[in-house]
Amino acid sequence: MTIMEHIVLFIIGLIGSFFSGLLGIGGAIINYPLLLYVPVWFNVDSFSAKEVADISIFQVFFSSLAGVLAYRFQTKDEGPVVHKRLVMNMGISILVGSLIGSLSSNYLPNETINIVYGVLAIIAVILMLFPNHGEKKHFNIAQIRFNPWIAAACAFLVGIASGIVGAGGAFMLIPIMLTVLKIPTRVTVASSLAIVFISAVGGMTGKIAAGGIPFWPTLFVVIGSLLGAPLGSFVSRRLNVKYLRVCLAVLIAATAIKIWVDILT
Predict the structure, then answer these.
(1) Is residue 97 a contact partner of residue 163, using CB atoms and an 8 Å limit?
(2) What pLDDT was estimated at residue 148?
(3) Whose C-alpha in 27, 120, 176, 183 is 20 to 30 A from the C-alpha of 35?
């Protein structure tokens, strides 16, 4: 790899994880199109959809791990807000789903993987345009109830789709937890971090088992993501990101359109 390739991949990881920390969405939904198109634009490299999914899941794993550790540090003096039963229920389901999705992606044509991303991107745009509403009053975490079958089924389906494209699935999990399962906002945010990390473990395990991970591109994207996520989280506490979410939704929509045009032509 050339120095220019290192720089481009580092910046891609930095940008993707910055917006992940800034907006509280999965980094893969941003990194996927960046990895697919930006290296080609700069004439430094070209990655297939399978390679992009492989790189993305490693970025999600390390950025979600950093997010879990940072959240524990920031809330160490607060009461428990992680719903352990919810994490176990959805975590096991999404682990199985993401493992199945990541393993099956090795046998899927690149066009199919791009179609899955195109569908997920459309869903992401729709979800990003709606504000996340959740109960913000005081609550007793031991009294929070949810339907375990619905939670498990949703997590499993999210896991399969996200495992195929190398995502953690946070952008789908959070609205599901808020609107379908009726989980309070603070519990949703804290618990989803743990669930996404479990999802990333399953996805990464499947990618490693399938083999063919592009080591050096993955390394530089991960390094960039480890720096970008904390920076995005820091900035998010000082900015009103409402309009930025709309701009990013437009960007993801444009990417989805580009992918669908490439598929259909």
Answers:
(1) yes
(2) 94
(3) 176
Distance CA 238, CA 179 (A): 27
Q: What is the DSSP letter of 106?
A: G
In angstroms, the CA 56 to CA 167 distance is: 7
Q: Of 55, 63, 69, which is closest to residue 20 (Cα–Cα)?
A: 63
Per-residue model confidence (pLDDT) at position 218: 92
Q: Report the predicted TM-score, pTM, of the whole model to 2 decimal places.
A: 0.83
Q: Cα–Cα distance between 40 and 71 in angstroms, integer? A: 36
Structure tokens at 235: 């900035």
Q: How far apart are CA 9 and CA 26, in angstroms?
A: 18
- 10 Å CB burial of residue 104 (0-12, 13-18, 19+) is middle
Cα 23 to Cα 26: distance, rounded to the nearest angstrom: 9
Ranges of the chain with pLDDT below 70: 1, 23-26, 70-80, 128, 130-140, 236-237, 239-245, 247
CA distance 48 to 256: 16
Tokens, residue 255: 């990417």
Pull the structure tokens for residue 184: 């309070």
Residues in the chain: 265
